[in-house]
Design brief:
Number of strands: 2
Strand order of the largest sheet: 1-2
Structural class: mainly alpha
Radius of gyration: 11 Å
Order of helices and strands: HHHHEE
Helix content: 40-55%
Distance between the termini: 28 Å
Strand content: 5-15%
Shape: globular
């Protein structure tokens, strides 16, 4: 099972993970079970791919500052 949602949820409160995703650093995804396409979408910030990979009506939105969240708001 993929850890895609777990990565997105954790990125809400983990500034190091957010920074790594924003910078495209694959080391921040070490230890997660992700398909190559999921890792690529996370590291490139490909919002359309993430929507498709999540395959549901509740989308995570990539904010300019690199935060991923599910309601369009940051804490």
């Amino acid at each position: 099972m993929s850890d895609l949602r777990q990565v997105l949820l954790r990125s809400n409160h983990d500034s190091e993970l957010r920074a790594g995703l924003r910078d495209g650093d694959p080391r921040v995804l070490a230890g997660y079970t992700l398909a190559e396409e999921e890792s690529s979408a996370l590291l490139s910030g490909d919002e359309n791919a993430l929507y498709r990979l999540l395959d549901d009506r509740k989308y995570f939105h990539i904010r300019e500052n690199g935060a991923y969240d599910d309601d369009g708001l940051t804490d």
